[in-house]
Amino acid sequence: MHWTQLLDRVFRIYYFFKFYPFRKERLQKRRSGRSTGFVGIQIDGLSTSHFKQALEKGYLPNIQRHLTRGYRLRQYQAGLPSTTPAAQATIFYGLEEGIPAFRWFDKKSGQLFSCNDIDHVQKFREELFDGRPGLLEGGSSYSNILDGGAARSVFTVSSPHPQTLFGRFGGSRILLLLVLHPLRVCRMMVASVLEYFMEIYDRWHFAKTRPWKVREGLFPFIRIFCNVILRELQTFGVIADIYAGVPYIYTTYSGYDELAHHFGPASHQALKNLKYTDKRIGEIMRMLRHAPGGRYELIILSDHGQTPGYPFRDRFGATLGEAVSAFLRENQEATVSSGPLEFTHLQLGYLEEELDSPKGWRHQVYRASKKFFQRRINALVPETLKVDPEGGIVITYSSSLAHLYLTGAPQRLHWCELEAQQPLLLQFLSRHKGIGFFIARGKDGQVCFFHRHGRLCAQPDKVPDQSQLSFLAPYGDPEKIFPELCRFANQESCGDLILFGAYDGNRIVCFDDQVGGHGSVGGEQLEPFLILPNGHPVLTRENLAGYQFLYQDVFLPYRRQGSVPEKLRR
């Protein structure tokens, strides 16, 4: 017997005993027909260039072997906004509008939305995707922002059905896995302690070698949760589902993205962390090779990259919101016809109204606990939004992207209306060194770009001359990013002004307290990667841009009649 066959048999026996409780589920799916599906692995925030750096440093041995087994790496251009919620909305539902940033303000309802708040995400999920089929229907979602309609939604912010907190953390399925595998639990506990001390050392080393200061806040606990606990549990859940034959599985590893925000996307801390993510991906690959419960295609991708940056507050001495509020206070001659902000539906970042859900004692305890912790957490985290009741403005930050809303009107305003209400505001923002450019709506469908050298108003379907687009040159190829900026600027949920951090070709301004940014344009944040099998028709295309092709041409074919793309059938 060849040694590879012997190894395969050993792994089959090993997995048989390790996942014996899922044997019944596996056999049931086998009897209903051997399923064909996919396992999607998303490495959050990893650009193609930083992916290649990690390969060269030897941090991704499992993925490197994967590339030698008939798979190919391909770069594509991220859509706008280049954030995980917007990317997953398109990948899972084919919807490109409705999520203008990681945080935004809905002018019609007067509500703020943040994608790290369960209630906020659940609310806009029900508004945007109600009745739309999701890519993961009948499958599983692990550690994502959106659930994709998955039957099993674990460590995922949204859910297609009412779910308890215990259910969101995997319920009895994850609990059973932990009970049956105490060694993994011990490894996770030891790794959590080591990660905490590693955070202390990394923060000390970063403070000595970098000029930018970043507030720590809750990051040590976020780092332990994402880089140890969540990474272990989501991997275990994915492996169990592959063994059981769940047809559609999608998971996101977010550890690199968190570290890149705080230490930089090319930092030793962020890149070395990929070594541990690669080990978990290697576990998934072994299960796919030796004991899968169905026929799967493994698709590895990132949703966006990160561009090295520096905090707006650290460079200019105040946050963007503080700078705008101070300007408005000092220029009271500016007419504020929008009036003071009404707080009927608005609190500082949290929804006042509760979602429709059971009102039992457990729900009441959860709600009271959530409000208790939110009040205390809010004092620890850096500013991510600014509400100025007197000036009548709301500003939301999403890394290198910000949205500015003037209250008093339920719809987006044209730049002429903005200038009438705040005559000096446009001039102040266009001349600020921390803002590269900003966009507003114009008349007759025009999109207007404001920068320190002037204003450009153009129709979205006609690309202006290169000389007129010279202000976009540091951010990339103006002819490529101009149409995407126009498409993005026409979303109704965007701010009255859409602000993009200044970029000098090396570092970008982050409105959040971060040293690695994404969400806007410029640099590596627009350069995610995709790994597909050789011969996949998508690989033959010259230009891959946005996220729609991932939905239509990469993942969706595996759902249609339970088949794989014609050219990949073996």
Specify the helix fraction band. 40-55%
So how many helices?
19
* Shape, principal axes of CA atoms: globular
- The Cα radius of gyration reads 24 Å
* Biggest sheet overview: 7 strands, mixed
Order of strands, main sheet, comes to 2-19-8-1-7-5-6
Instruction: Kindly report the average pLDDT value.
Output: 84
Q: What proportion strand?
A: 15-25%
Q: What structural category arises from helix and sheet content?
A: alpha/beta
* Low-confidence residue ranges: 333-357, 563-570
The tally of beta strands, per DSSP, is: 19
First-to-last CA distance: 25 Å
Could you describe the 3D structure shown?
The chain is an alpha/beta fold. Strands 2-19-8-1-7-5-6 form a seven-stranded mixed β-sheet. It has a seven-stranded antiparallel β-sheet with strand order 10-11-12-16-13-14-15, covered by helices on one side. The radius of gyration is 24 Å and the shape is globular. α3 (48-56) packs across α12 (268-290) and α10 packs parallel to α12 (268-290). 40% of the residues lie in helices and 16% in strands.
Brief overview:
This protein is an alpha/beta fold and 570 residues long.
